[in-house]
Amino acid sequence: MMKSLASYAMRGPLQAILAVAGLAIASLLFFPLSWPLSYLSGGLVALVGLTQASRESMLIVLGATAALAVLALLIGSPHFAVGYALVVWLPAWLVAQWLRQRESLSQTLLLCGLVGLVGISIMFPLLGDPARWWGEYFNQQVIPALEQAGIEIQDEVALRAMLEQSARLMTGAMFTSLVLSAIIGLLVGRNWQARLFASAAPGEFHQLRLGTLAAGVSLAIVALAQFVGGLAGQWLVNAATVALGVFLFQGLAVGHALARRSQNAKIWLVVLYIVLFFTLPYGALAIAMLGILDNWIELRRRFPGAAG
Question: Taking a C-beta distance cutoff of 8 angstroms, is the pair 45, 189 a contact?
């Protein structure tokens, strides 16, 4: 079904616009599936970015934004379309352009991580103390909005304490979500490209390795975040979320490569993602750490036939 959708989007600009915008609209209508559908929409943007010239693929993104804006205007939120395009479609399009030019998946993921770290670094001088800024935002905007919506808060003290803890991580969480959205969209688009055109490198994702330099820097950030306090410690904690978010994909690549040794590879992968989902965030942290350590222990080379 997904391959048919991608094939439909490749028939022409109008079909691509309808498919991209249609998935975005579906992500609004079917709330439980909002994230998966938005990733698929970003995947279609990445697909057209990987297979078509920059100008043509950007016109498709603009056309989908216009189509979504018309619907958003009907429900009184015309700014939503622009926000969706900036958060979901533009990052997927940009990383697709980079991958199309460089043909290196590892470099593309490292670029995503670097952009995330730069974004966090810019936010700190802009906000002064991001944790305090987010805390004030929660207290002045979020809690009053919940009360106005008629949502009963059982334990406001506990809620405020939870939001105060979350405030320290919000800057990193925001950029990590953007990085994850871009990378997932890219991987979905790359998968469709390989299925439709057989133009992607065979086993590209299974062979993903981000390198010992990036792994060492990420490991140092994660370690220092446990001991350093103040604003520097806050930056390290937020930077660690981005670094771990990127290396999560190398960890998953190891899982995919090792699963291919089994005749029941699909079953093992289903189990992997079910366990990952139900153990969040600890399962994701463990897989990300595996991805970091894999740059030295090279698990895929230790098991014949695991890579490729």
Answer: yes
User: Measured between alpha carbons, how far is residue 154 from residues 158, 162, 206 in Å?
Assistant: 9, 13, 47
- Of the candidates 259, 243, 254, 256, which has an alpha carbon nearest to the alpha carbon of residue 299? 254
Q: Are 93 and 57 in contact (CB under 8 A)?
A: yes
Phi, psi of 35 (to 5 degrees): -65, -50
Cβ contact 77:8 at 8 Å: no
Q: What is the pLDDT of residues 246-294, one digit of tens each?
A: 999 999 999 999 888 777 888 889 999 999 999 988 999 999 999 999 9
Do 207 and 307 touch, CB atoms closer than 8 A?
A: yes
Count Cβ atoms below 10 Å from residue 220 Cβ, excluding itself: 13
Of 98, 245, 280, 111, nearest in space to 175 by CA: 245
pLDDT tens, position by position, 157-181: 777 778 888 888 999 999 999 999 9
